[in-house]
Amino acid sequence: MYAATFVFAKKQFDDEFHRLDQTIAAAAKSLPGYLGEESWENPGNGLVSNVYYWDSLDHLQALIRHPVHQQAKAAQANWLDGYRVVISEVVRIYGDSRIDHLLAPSGAP
Questions:
Q1: Residue 25 half-sphere exposure, CB side, CA atoms within 13 Å?
Q2: Which of 34, 56, 62, 79 minimizes the number of CB atoms within 10 Å of its CB?
Q3: pTM of the predicted model, to two decimals?
Q4: Can you give the pLDDT at residue 108?
Q5: Residue 71 C-alpha from the chain's centroid
Q6: Burial of 97 (0-12, 13-18, 19+ CB in 10 A)
Q7: Is-contact 87 60, C-beta < 8 A?
Q8: Which Gene Ontology MF annotations are present (predicted)?
Q9: Which CATH number fits the domain that encloses residue 35?
């Protein structure tokens, strides 16, 4: 499994941003290998983190190559005040079953 973590600082979002964001979200969910996503915001520094989970690197790269994703990436400076993307391989998932999370560990009590 792979995780693509998109961390960014917000500027002003406009209608074009929201249109592209919704189109990219729909595209991701329609692609094979998409497992889910979650978002976090750090109130201390205002950074937002969106984490997308994929069953393979090839499937993740299909979203990266998607034309609307490329369009948004080219225009990101209109809406973002900086960003980072971290692509990582998930090696292990563990914990208990007391929280509902899309990455529930297998065999959790």
A1: 11
A2: 56
A3: 0.82
A4: 44
A5: 16
A6: exposed
A7: yes
A8: monooxygenase activity
A9: 3.30.70.100
Q: Does residue 98 fall inside a structural domain?
A: no
Q: Are strands 34-41 and 2-10 parallel, antiparallel or unpaired?
A: unpaired
DSSP string for residues in 81-93: EEEEEEEEE----
Q: Domain range for residue 54? A: 2-89
Q: 82-102 pLDDT, tens per residue?
A: 999 999 999 988 888 888 887
- Quick one: how far is CA 5 from the chain centroid? 5
pLDDT (tens digit per residue) in 47-87: 999 999 999 999 999 998 999 898 888 889 999 999 999 99
